Amino acid sequence: MTAQETFQCSNCGAPVQKHANTCPACGSPLLFPGRQTEEINQSARQVVEDLNGYLVKSATSAAELAFGVGCTLGVLAIVLLLVIVYFAITKIWTIVIVTGLLAVLISVIISAMLATRAKNATVEKTYQRTTKPEIERFIRANGMSEEEFSELAASVLPASAPLRELWGQEHSAEGSEA
C-alpha cells in the first residue's frame, strides 16, 4: 500500500484505505476527497432515520414496560381494595363492583402517566448517551456542519420525531445564546 492510497480517519486518526467506507478502528463513516456529495447526503439521511428509529423503539419499549408494571401493581392494589371493601365495609356487590371499576380507571390513568414519564425519560437519556454522540461522530467524519445536519433532519423527519425535536431544541438554544 502506498502513501497515496492511505488516509487518516477524521474521527480517530487511524490509517484507512482510500476506498473504505468506514474506519476499521472506530467504525465511523469516512469522507475522502472526491466522495460524492449525494452519497454523503444519502448516508446522512439513513443515519437520521436509523437514529430516530432507535429513539422511537427505545421509548416504546420503556413505555410498554412501565405501563405493564403499573397495571400489574394496580391489579394487586385493586384486589386488595375489593377484599377490604367487601369484608370490612359492606357486603353489597353493587358497591364492590362500582368501587372496582373506579379503581381500574384510576389504575389505568396512573399507568398511562407512568408510561409517558418513562417514554420521555428514556428518549432524553438515549439521545444524550447514544444518539447525540453518534450524530457528532457522523458530522465530524463527513465534514458536515451542525446546521447542514439540522436542515437534513428537518427535511427527512416529521416535526414530531424525537430526534428532530431534541436536536432542534438543543441547537436553537445554542443559537439564541450566541
Any descriptors?
178 residues; 4 helices
Radius of gyration: 26 Å
Order of helices and strands: EEHHHH
- Indicate the low-confidence ranges by residue numbers: none
Could you say which overall geometry the principal axes of the C-alpha atoms support? elongated
In terms of quaternary structure, the protein is single chain
* Count of helix runs: 4
Assess the beta-strand content as a share of residues. under 5%
Major sheet: arrangement of strands: 1-2
Question: Between the first and last Cα atoms, what is the distance in angstroms?
Answer: 46 Å
Write down the domain tally. 2
Query: Largest sheet, if any?
Result: 2 strands, antiparallel
Helix content: over 70%
Mean pLDDT over all positions = 86
Number of strands: 2
Task: Give a description of the structure.
The protein has 178 residues and is mainly alpha-helical. The protein folds into two domains: 1-35; 37-177. The chain is 73% helix and 3% strand. It has a two-stranded antiparallel sheet. The longest helix is centred in the middle third of the chain and has 53 residues, at 37-89. The model has no long low-confidence stretch (mean pLDDT 86).
Summarize the structure.
The chain has 178 residues and is mainly α.
Helix-strand blueprint:
Layout: E1 6-8, E2 15-17, H1 37-89, H2 93-142, H3 146-156, H4 162-177
